[in-house]
Structure formats: C-alpha cells, structure tokens
Amino acid sequence: WAAKQLGVCGALIVYLDNYLVNMSSKPVLYYAARSPPCRAVLLTAAAIGLELDLRPTNLKERDHLTPEFLKLNPQHTIPVLDDNGTIVTDSHVINAYLVDKYSPDETLYPKDQLKRREVDARLYFDAGHLFPRVRLMVEPIIYFDAYEISQEKIAYMQLAYDGLERCLANAPYLCGEHLTIADLCAVASVSTAALFAPIDEEKFPKLAAWLKRLSLLPYYQKNNQDGADLLHSFVTERMVSNKKAKEAEK
C-alpha cells in the first residue's frame, strides 16, 4: 500500500512538474522573417517586452500545409500564435491578443471603446488595403514568374499612401499622440512597400516622417527592417532570374 501511495505521489509530482513547465513556457510564434504580418507581431512583442519562442515556417517547403500545421490553422497562413494551447491567427488579432494579455500599457491598444474602434479601423485598413497591395506587387514575381512591377501597381500602392497621409495630418501616429498596434502593423506593410514603390517625401511628407519616426524605435531594425530587406533581395533576385528565363524562351 505504501509503495502504491509513493507511486501515485510520484506520478502526481511528474504531472504537476510538466504542467508548470508548460504553463511557464513562452508563447510560440510560427513565422517567416520576410513576411510583413509576421514582422508586425515581432514588433508588437518587442514593444511590450514579451519573449516569443520563434518557429521559422518555410512556405517554399510547404511547412504550412502539413497536417500538424493545418490543425493549428486550417487557413494555412502565417503568423500563428500558440500560447499554451490557445491558438490565435492573423497578425492583427494576435497583436491585439498579446497587448490585452501581456501589456500593462493601454495606449498600444486602448481599453476605451471609442479609441479602440479607431485603432481597429486602421488595422482593417492595413488588412484590406495596405498589405494586399504589397502582395499584388511581389507575389506575381515570387509565384508566377513575373519580372517587373507595373506602374499601375505602384500607383495603386500610392493611393494607399494617400490614405495614411491623411490619417497623419494632425498627429504623429495613426491614431493620435500615442504609438498603437495600428502603427506597428501598418509600418511592416509600408516599410516593405516603400522598397518597391518609394514614398515621395514631397507628396507624402507626413507619411515619410512617420516611417522615419518608427524606424528609430530601438527594436525596429531587428524585428522589421532586416526582414523587409531580406524580402527585397529575394524579390529582386527573382525578377532577374524570371526575366532571363523569359528571354531564353524567345
């Protein structure tokens, strides 16, 4: 009986030990450094001082289509956050979740409903306008053998710049006097877009100043610009190789 009791106690200790280890583990982020939405999450985590367990996800190797990944996110997109079993998808939702759960700083994602709605509106602008126009410029090159970005696509991107310029008309940040997750999401898209559709500082002075302002954040280079530069190099190389392949077909 005593031996049986010890066995039960030992099993309970092991269970509790594993439980505490799991509960204390860092949130896991499945990501790719070249991806603007993934970089938006890296920026937000850095802004609130949260350390993540980073799991690189290779889309070329179809990591996002494995059965294990599809259980996490049937939409097979990145980023995906696994916070001790709580699965959160979409960068905008992930950032809101992280700030709500881990940050004492309410300015990043205000509790006040009116202020929060303004942040949400800017998040939706990124999701519906900024990032899709980045994709429109680069994905045909990455996936469909295009070798140039048309002036029409650049002009379409600049229409989105105009929207941001107007948002910044009377304040240093997209939602007023304070940095929010709307800025961190938008800057991941804009900093990438600007590498392919440069921002005209005379036409968009507020936007150019905003981008410069965010680039001075101490965590910006590592968590955003390095990845944007990787994407730019990759796309530029693809443009060259795609063009050579097209010319060889003639």
TrEMBL record:
Swiss-Prot/TrEMBL keywords: Transferase
Transmembrane region(s): none
Domain spans labelled GST N-terminal: 25-106
Highest taxon of source: Eukaryota
PROSITE patterns per the UniProt record, alphabetical: GST_CTER, GST_NTER
Keyword presence, Transferase: yes
Name recorded for this polypeptide: Glutathione S-transferase 1
Organism from which the protein derives: Zeugodacus cucurbitae (Melon fruit fly)
Name of the gene this protein is made from: GST1_17
